[in-house]
Amino acid sequence: MKDGWETIIGLEIHAQLSTESKIFCGCSTRFGDEPNANTCPVCLGLPGSLPVLNRRVVELGARAALALGLQINERSIFARKNYFYPDLPKGYQISQYDQPFSERGELEIMTAERDEGGHPKEWRPFRIRITRLHLEEDAGKNVHEGLPDVDRYSYIDLNRAGTPLAEIVTEPDFRSSWEAYDYVNYVRRALQWVGASEADMEKGNLRCEANVSVRRIGDEKFGTKVELKNLNSVRFMQRAIEYEIERQINLIESGGRVVQETRLWDERAQETRPMRSKEEAHDYRYFPEPDLPPLVVTGEFIETVRATMPELPGARLRRFVDEYKLSHSDASLLTSERALADYYERAVKASPNARAAANWVRSELLRELEAANLSAEASPVSPEELGRLLHTVEEGKINAKQAKDVLVEMFKTGKSADAVIQERGLVQMSDEGEIDRIVDEVITANPKQLEQYRAGKEALFGFFVGQVMKASKGKANPKIVNERLKAKLSQ
Amino acid sequence: MPLSEYNVESIRSRIASGEESLRDTVNRSLDAAERLNEKLNAFLEIDRKGALARAEELSANQQAGESGLPLAGVPLAVKDNICVRGLQASCGSRILGPYHPPYSATVVERLQAAGAVVVGKTNLDEFAMGSSNENSAFGVVRNPWDTERVPGGSSGGSAAAVAAGIVPVALGSETGGSVRQPAALCGIVGLKPTYGRLSRYGLVAFASSLDHISIFGRNVRDVAEVLQVAAGRDPLDATSADVDVPDYKAALTTDIKGVRIGVPRALLSEGLDADVSERIEAAIEAYRELGAEVIDIELPHAKYCIAVYYVIATAEASSNLARFDGVRYGFRAEEAKNLREMYRRTRDEGFGAEVKRRIMLGTFVLSSGYYDAYYRKAQQVRTLLKIDFEHAFGVCDAILTPTTPTPAFLIGEKVDDPLSMYLNDIYTCTANLVGVPGISVPCGLSKDGLPVGLQLMSRHWDEAGLLNLAHAYESKHPLLERPRVSALSDSTS
Ligand SMILES: [Zn+2]
User: Residue A164 Cα, ligand 1 centroid: separation in angstroms?
Assistant: First the structure.
């Protein structure tokens, strides 16, 4: 960014909570069913129907709030947000307004600016204040493609109407696009981690909006903020913010003025554009939802939820660094998903040492998992078996290179480490008598080389090692072969 | 059967004794509904086919020796803003077009399961907004006592149907007095239970925090029987309460000795019709004679109730009626050029004048910049009103007022004066704001021969005490006169 300027960014995330059924009725939240298959009088907004809160939403909302360090309010109120749109069956969205589910969160994450190639420069801790996390229902969607007479008709699919969302709003605490990037990634991971949301931006179950403004360093007043939408991945969001910062600074420096508006990110053109629709400023006329009593969450309930919460990613990362002496980047990678972190910790228990386990999980195992497009939970090689394999290396039974091949085979076939080693006859020959016998044979069979070696051509030592290994079909323990050859050749 | 004997208990005993078959009972009600509709316009839909099929089914069950359902064969009329699967739900509005809900209200389901047979859907003020039934898109309902006069509203169709003896009991809905007021004007009993006592699931919302399904009957006992079956928590309505449902019939002892009745004297002076005043004073005297203690009480904030009511009710209505947008069901204006125009024209052509007036009022009071001055302020006064009632019920067991300031007025008399129309609810709408149960019982006729209603209100959940108090009066002072239009003659038929 240009010198002398400061950027102010606030973020709003909408995360779909992973419940089986919708927030105010019993309909399924399944994705990809026939349009309007998962609907009922309540989520269709039929006259006379009433909402009833799904308790599971409260539980997942509590998990999300605790994962992000928010205070859960003992009493919160649902409110109606009134506006007309065809995908909004009741003409209002049931959301929360001045008494939200949870407030006043504070989160410490690691962040780093990136170089030209996108590589992190220097990781540093960064604190964000989260204003609120509240519960609300999603709208349906208008469908304009792939249906008859789309030039004359709009179609509406209300399968998504009533899907539970957590809206997570931050204070304007971000000063760079990468801080925003690291925050959203952290939130995604944390929500997945505690099982509150799948938080998959591609699937649309995590959506993000950014409020961006710039000001000259030293100015007290915030600049005019612009709302960015259509940010369909974390990377898109980062690029959109970056573009927007530059656009606003250039605009002001050339004597222009930023207007308060909503702009959409166009990934193909790599730019933000003002939203075309001439939407008037909305007055949503929020008021307390009279169909739902206040949501009361007891301290006891919160404690029950807290007791079933896994260790959070930030804490676990720090523990991996302290306890297993991992580098920050290894620990960060291993805590990128809860399943992977769980896998790693089980592997540590079964392995001779934690750092070796980290290396193997991070490089060899992850490569196989990624190639097979599997999560750590679904790995055909259990962490215990991986540990067993590492023990055979540690004990010198097989070498590291062999072990890598063994792991590939284990991954492919699901067989145990021992079985693969046995089948391939990979068990090292460490019997000194046996090795002596082969060494003797090799020396006897190569009198010319022996003579040259003894005459001082020591480079021939490698030749003898190779011959012994060949005669043993690669099984001889190279360490013992070295020792015995040295002894015999110098006799 | 004489009109005075047309009630749930006599229907049950006649069917049981074989004096009249279940089918004939239902059939007679259907005949009456059809025959009198030209005069009264009480029904918007009469379900002859469905009702008779249900009667056959119930008869077959009875013959198979199934234990008697409490309301087996009792004809029931349902206000047309309460969903009954298979029947229309017009809400008295053009905007719903030919809408047929795919489900039934919980209360309807419970009554049907108890053997009640829905004979039809009754006329009402559009979306229950009105006190005279003149706001129905399908024409005014006429009062069986004098067809030049209104039956009251908004549940005028149900009230007229019960008053004329077409059905013994009917469902209505209340937001500010829409059952008690027409009950008073039609000379029958109307009960609005405690908020949360009856599920609202399937009642098309007008103002959710004030809406109640309510009950009409020809006597207190019938109302108690219907309440018994319909009451209780419904998992489909988050505002329905998990409170014990006592035996209401058993509570009707007529013993009211020592019961304290409070009369808010300050409310009984201004604007009160002389005949009504006279009847009420007589009723107060009657209660003294029955052994009750009558004391004066004060409800200092009750004078604000109409103002508070019209802010809260319209605010909620403006949001509740947003779903009628022409997108998914009901009426849609033709040939709109774009979405905005489709919305505007659909709602302009689909809603009547009073509904539009209230949507605009409600939209205004919720608007940014006005919310605090109107909606929030109204909620604060509502809280004060609740405190008034708490104080009052600290010194008395029930509150007595007239149900309405005047008897039934002439059709057209108040249509151009919404404010005077709104004053019809002055005695009733406090119970909706506070949530306490209220009942209207006939207490004689005016000099012009029009029924006058006596209102009683009690503590939250004390319908049992309230019903007994009404029953005690009714037993001693039954309304023996009959309306001019009625399905039944007084000579045995
Ligand atoms: Zn549904």
Answer: 12
What's the CATH number where B444 sits?
A: 3.90.1300.10
Chain A CB contacts of B80 under 8 Å are none
ipTM score here? 0.96
Q: Is B368 a catalytic site residue?
A: no
What residue ranges define each of the domains in chain A, with the CATH number in brackets?
Answer: 5-299 (no CATH), 311-423 (no CATH), 432-489 (1.10.10.410)
Measured CA to CA, the distance from residue B165 to residue A386 in angstroms comes to 85
Alpha-carbon span A28 to A39, nearest angstrom: 8
| A chain contacts of residue B237, beta-carbon cutoff 8 Å | 50, 52
pLDDT digits (tens, 9 = 90+) for A108-150: 888 999 998 888 888 888 999 999 999 999 999 998 888 888 8
Distance CA A205, CA A198 (A): 7
What Å distances lie between residue A53 and A135, A164, A198, A427, CA to CA?
11, 10, 21, 62
Instruction: Calculate how close chain B gets to A53, using CA atoms only, in Å.
Output: 8
pLDDT digits (tens, 9 = 90+) for B291-304: 999 999 999 999 99
Cα of A39 vs centre of ligand 1, distance in Å, is: 4
**pLDDT band, very low/low/confident/very high, at B493 (cuts 50, 70, 90):** very low
Domain residue limits at B142: 3-257+439-476
Which of chain A's residues have a Cβ under 8 Å away from the Cβ of B368? 283, 285
Residue B172 lies in a domain: yes
* Residue B236 to residue A50, Cβ atoms within 8 A: yes
